[in-house]
Every structure is written in C-alpha cells, then in structure tokens.
Amino acid sequence: MQNLEIDNIRKNANIVDIISGYVDLTIKGKNYFGVCPFHSDHSPSMSVSPERQIYKCFSCGATGNVFTFVKDIENVSFMEAVKIVAEKTHQNFTGYIKQKSPPKLSTPYEIMNLALKFYQNNLNTEKGIMAKEYLKTRNLNESVIEDFNLGLALGNEYSLNKLLLNKQYKLDTLINLGLVYQNNKEISDTFKYRIIFPIHDLEGNPVGFTGRIYENNGQAKYINSKESSIFKKGNILFNYHRAIPEIRQKKEVIIVEGNMDAIRLYSNGVKNVVALMGTSLTKEQVNIIKNMRSKIILMLDNDNAGELATYNNGNILEKEGITPFVVRLSNEKDPDEYIIKNGIEAIINNIKKPVTFLDFKLNYLKKDKDLNNTVDLASYIKESIASLKYINDDLIKKITIKKISDTYNVPLDLLEQELNKLQNLNINSEKKEKTLDKQKISKYDMSCINIIYFMLNEGVYIEKFKKELGYFRIKKYRDLANEIIYYYDLYKNISLANFITYAEEKDIYDDLMDILKKVKLEDMNINIFEESINNALIEGQKIEIKELKTKINEVLDENEKLKLANKLIELKKGCVGNG
Asked: Which CATH number applies to 103-231: 3.90.980.10, 3.90.70.10, 3.30.499.10, 3.30.1330.90?
C-alpha cells in the first residue's frame, strides 16, 4: 500500500517551485523550461509540467517527479529527498530514514567500524603518547583527532588481526579488505606503527585507511588501503560526508589534493572542502561534484604536478558542463603548509579571489613555449582557441579571441574562422552521438516503452493495452505492465508522478526510470499508441518466429520438431513482412 504521508507531501509540493530553486525556469505555453542539470546542457532542454507534476529532459532523458529530481540533484536517498521536499514546503515528515547497506556488504562495514574503534583506542593509550606528540608538532590538536577519528596502528603484540580473528571473522575477508596480509603461514597487520586517517564513503561509513609514519624508520611515508568490495577510490571524495552540509549552504566547494589539506582547512573553519582520492577525477566523482550544484574551486598542490592536475581536472569538469575556478598558491608546497606558514586568513583571501579556469588555462598553455617563435606562437593560438570548445558563452569566446588578436597581432577574422571550424566539429560529433544512441534501441523495445508511457498517464490506455495486446515478451516490460494494471485496479486512477513514488518501494523502480529516460514522445495521441501496439504485435511475432527457428534446429525429437514447424507456419501466416 502506498505511503499516504509521502503521497500527500508530493501533492502539496509544486514541482516548479522546487526545481526553480536549483534551475532557472522560463514559462513557454503550459510548461516551464530550463537547462538540464543532469548532463552537459547548452540550451533549455528540460521541460517541467505543473499540470502533471513531472520533469523531462528531451536531450539526456532524465525524468521523474519532485522526489526523484531532489534525489538525483542532491545525491541523497529517496527518503532523504522526501524529507528535503517536506522541509522546503513546510510540511511534516515522520518517516524513518535509515542508512542502507546491501546485505552482502554488512560484514565488511562491521569489520571496518571495529577496526576504526581499535585504532582510535590505541591512540588514547600509553602506547599512543609518542604519536600524539607528533600530531601536536603538526598542529593537530585533540579536537581535530576527534573530528577526523584519527587512530594508531601498533605492532604485532597489539595486532588488529588477532582481535578480528578471535571474533570469528574470516581471514579471506580481512585480506580482501586490505587490513591484513599473509606471508606463507604468517599473518600480519597491513598497518603497523602508523597514525591512521580513516577514509569514509559518501554516507560516512569507514571504508579504508591511510597510515602515516610518525617515526623516521625508513618506511614509506604513507600507505593506503587497497580497493575492496566497499572501497572504490573513484567513487569517493575525502571529507564529503562532513563537508556536504556546508557546501549546500555556501553553494561553493573547494577541491584540494591531499587529505591533510582538507583536514587543515576544515579544522580552521573552511568546512566546504573535499580532497581528491587520486590525481585525476573519475566519472563517478564528476557526477558527485555536478550534483552539488555549487561553485567549484580547484586548489591543488603548488608544484608542476599540481599545476598539471589542475589543468587536466579542469578540462574534465569543463567537458561535463561544469565551469571551475582556480586558486594557485605561492611558495608553500600545498594548502596544509600554506596555512601553517601564513595563517588561515591568507588562504581565505585567495579563496575569495579565484581566477576563472579559462584564464588559468590560457596562461598554462604558454608554459614551455617561446611566443617570439612563430611555430610556438601558432601552436599556442590554436590550443587557446581549442580551449574554448566547451565554453557555452558566446560573449566570452568573442572577448577571448579579440584579446588574442590584439595581443599577438593576428587578424580577427582568421581566429573566428578557426573557432567556427571547431564549433562545426562539435555539432557534427553531437549529432553522431545522438544517432548512435537511437540505434541502440530496437523497434520492439521502443514500442513497449511508448505503450508503457501511455499506460502511466491515462487509464484508457491501460484498458486498451489489456484488450489489444495484453502481454509483453520481455520480462521487465511485462513486470512493469502488471504493476501498472495492479495500481490502476487498486486506486481507480493513474498518475505518473504518483506511480514513481509507488515504484520506489518495489523491484521495478530502476526499470521504470530507465524506460522513462528512453521515451522520446513530446505529444501523446491515440494514433501513436495504436501504431506502437501494432509494431509490438508485429515485432513480437518476428521475435517468436526467430526463437522457434532456433528451437527447431536444436530439438532432436521428430514429433516435437513437427509441432514446432506447424506452429511456425501459423505464426508466419499472421506476421506482416515475413515470407
């Protein structure tokens, strides 16, 4: 049974009001339109219907009701999205929100929590005095130790593996999590005589560790947990779970390179900071950043590697429609050392005055070039024009090429020709990508998708489906159609906005959202529905004929072969386009 409280919250929340808090919307006819936040959008391709209380992007296919929009843009669970919508619309929400972990992963999380408590306890014993003294020399006080759950790994006489094995956890699991290793028959802790910095996932669960030496014993300064079933570096930004409330409030996020940079900034009051988990952003991390809907400031290390990482990561973000800003610090190696030497106010002053990524990039492209040399100058100008590839603002493009023209005495019309060539290449590339996307969906699949979409919007189409088709050959469509019919019979009406909420508690939610993304219909009429029914019948028969032919070739029993052959003949008689 649907949760009436959630349903009432959705009915009392105007989707236009909620989405306009994230995206600028303009009314055109009955609907509102805006730039879609879920892909690199250059024009208002997302439609928001106040009548139907749903949104739909006709470019990337993103769709849903008010809850799914908030869920995806805030990167939260469905129930957390309900809570956010309730708060924004001043409604009560009594639902219980719990952190969910897949059952098969519950033991690893349990082990990592126990390991963290073990390390924390070590730091607070007599054995932890030397490590704490070291932390003091790094200006990390008790408050920081507590906030960031710092711990201590000791030697074999205080080993983590003994504790965990005594609690009946399997050795293979401990090895897979990177907490212990086995050399011949000897079992040892991965982290020994190191200060432990825990790494948390986006929900705040400890999933890995970084261990740093505090005595000069010739070992590597840092070692990190290996990737495991619960720890994927590319899916995490260090300090995200602490920083996200401040990021949402300030609408600004500072991205640094190292964990210590994030810890130093956060502990000095700059709490909207996250750290990379490697030198290059992954697709998953970019999606996390995109969902923040905030101003992005890259403040990476002040060395050649940090400068290159700024250039590369800035390009990655820009390609995804995110326009970052850049802070480059002077003299000190990284933000951690900069704060220690210059104080927090000095770095805040830099954060308040970041340069645009475009300005940083145009300056970076001069690196190792002699601009008095004709070949180097031509290379620089071409690279500078190419750097405008993902800039959507025509005015910025024109100002940039005008500056290049004036500075290097190059005819403006020549630069404009280069820019036009680049833009035409982009348009052709986008057309090619869209064509390839269309080719991926079969005629039968598209017919099923269209029919389901009609059924989700009006009960009359549910009745027509039952009479004229009644069955989908593919299980995911069949399951979804059955749920739609059940819902309609139960509530005597159908609303896509309501059904999305209903589906969230069912196994059909992911299939539903996938199908809705593939719908290309802008108008709905009976002719399109009837055409889809007809195509589903014809294409379904073709699929069945193909399957029968395969069975006839595989079956050995002659009587069975004859029955299948007769069935095939009957099917062919009624199937258009088969000879």
From this structure: 3.90.980.10
- Element housing 358 (H / E): helix 357-364
3-state helix, strand, coil in the chain (%, to 5): 55, 10, 35
**CA 489 to each of CA 475, 484, 509: distance values in angstroms, whole numbers, following the listed order:** 21, 9, 19
* CB 107 within 8 Å of CB 40: no
What size, in residues, is the chain?
A: 579
Q: Which CATH number fits domain 235-363: 3.60.40.10, 1.20.210.10, 3.40.1360.10, 1.10.10.10?
A: 3.40.1360.10
Q: Tell me the β-bridge partners of 297.
A: 254, 325
4-88: which CATH topology? DNA Primase; Chain A (3.90.580)
Per-residue pLDDT band for 4 (boundaries 50, 70, 90) equals confident
Taking all residues of the chain, what is their mean pLDDT, rounded to a whole number?
Answer: 87
Query: What are the DSSP E strand ranges found in 88-176?
Result: 151-153
Say if residue 103's pLDDT is above 60. Answer: no
Q: What is the pLDDT of residue 40?
A: 66
Domain map of the chain by residue range? 4-88, 103-231, 235-363, 365-439, 443-573
Neighbours of 334 (CB within 10 A): 20
**Tokens for 350?**
């830099």
Mean pLDDT across the stretch 169-180? Answer: 94
pTM for this predicted structure: 0.69
| Rounded distance between C-alpha atoms, residue 501 and residue 496, angstroms | 9
The one-letter amino acid code at 551 reads K
